[in-house]
Amino acid sequence: MSEQLAQLVRKNVRELIPYQSARRLGGNGDVWLNANEYPTAIPFSLTQQTLNRYPECQPVEVITRYAQYAGLTPEQVLVSRGADEAIELLIRAYCEPGQDTVLYCPPTYGMYSVSAETYGVATRTQRLTTQWQLDLPAIEQQLDSVKIVYLCSPNNPTGNLLNAEDIRRILTLTRGKALVVVDEAYIEFCPEASVVSWMNEFPHLVVLRTLSKAFALAGLRCGFTLAQPEVIQTLLKVIAPYPLSTPVADIASQALSEQGLRLMRERVAELNTIRDTFIPRFNALACVEHAFPSQTNYFLIRCYDSPTVFKNLWEQGIILRDQNKNPLLGGCLRISIGTEKEMECLYQALAQFGPKGERQ
């Protein structure tokens, strides 16, 4: 970029480090286990042919079906271009640049910080404990000027649930002062842990959901915000006029039908079984210091020489997600749950490494 053009860019954007998605990181592989996607394509057929018309801003059938699925009213649901758009909408609608602050607890999903920085909103962090839980005393000391607290449970990339009572404590501390946004992108893998039922008790609770994971529709880009009607109405002021294209709304509606929900739950049961079968097997490998339990469609392994292992797997066309740069995750690689064949392929590849990353 020329110096003249560079000077036109907002200062905070010039200095911004963009989120490194799995696709941006690239790679050439046969076994893709780096993006927490469902490993095989799910067939859908388009039924709406009115592509000459603009779509509804909030497609009624999609909203109604998701509300029924979540146990809410349609007035408590907003649909957007993935949960990523919802993260941004909340910041745009509720945070004053240069005045308010967003708080999040790394290691966690990277878009909370990127979205805040993009809009010139300050961020504050409080690391999770060594057990990957909320450090409540430290968080309590940092809540002044905080307008939004982002909590991810199950957490990405650690795969564990945050303690429910800790989330409840944060909600109590922030009542009347801030929104608490609980990102439940992976909740279908442990639905009993959802906090959606707390909304009446805590009106400032907002829950994010997505069709990208358990619904096997990462390529669709369809997410949901669940909140009190007042919050939804505020977000509708700042959302794009047509956030969902007609084909997206069409497929989303099908995925949320009774049959779609049944198939989703079957996929979740399948992935959970594969996960729970392979974690103990990975734990027994020479190069693996520890394979961590998970409540999601991915899990972490800590390797004795993770850079060497990661590089060798990459060269074999087995693409994982390196977590070494994240706090508390030194030596960790994240593994998305693939098919049984893909997981066996990864297992056999890891079995070739000794405790120093050398080939055995």
UniProtKB/TrEMBL annotation:
Pfam families (UniProt xref): Aminotran_1_2
Known cofactor(s): pyridoxal 5'-phosphate
Record field: catalytic activity: L-histidinol phosphate + 2-oxoglutarate = 3-(imidazol-4-yl)-2-oxopropyl phosphate + L-glutamate
Pathway: Amino-acid biosynthesis; L-histidine biosynthesis; L-histidine from 5-phospho-alpha-D-ribose 1-diphosphate: step 7/9
Its EC number(s): 2.6.1.9
Modified residues (N6-(pyridoxal phosphate)lysine): K213
PROSITE patterns xref list: AA_TRANSFER_CLASS_2 (PS00599)
Alphabetical list of InterPro entries matching this protein: Aminotrans_II_pyridoxalP_BS, Aminotransferase_I/II_large, HisP_aminotrans, PyrdxlP-dep_Trfase, PyrdxlP-dep_Trfase_major, PyrdxlP-dep_Trfase_small
Keyword Transferase: yes
Residues making up the signal peptide according to the UniProt record: none
Residue ranges annotated for the Aminotransferase class I/classII large domain, each copy included: 32-350
Alphabetic keyword roster: Amino-acid biosynthesis, Aminotransferase, Histidine biosynthesis, Pyridoxal phosphate, Transferase
Any one GO MF annotation of this record: histidinol-phosphate transaminase activity
Domain of life from the UniProt record: Bacteria
Subunit-structure text: Homodimer.
Family to which this protein belongs: Belongs to the class-II pyridoxal-phosphate-dependent aminotransferase family. Histidinol-phosphate aminotransferase subfamily.
HAMAP family named among the record's database cross-references: HisC_aminotrans_2
Protein name: Histidinol-phosphate aminotransferase
Species for this entry: Rosenbergiella australiborealis
Gene: hisC
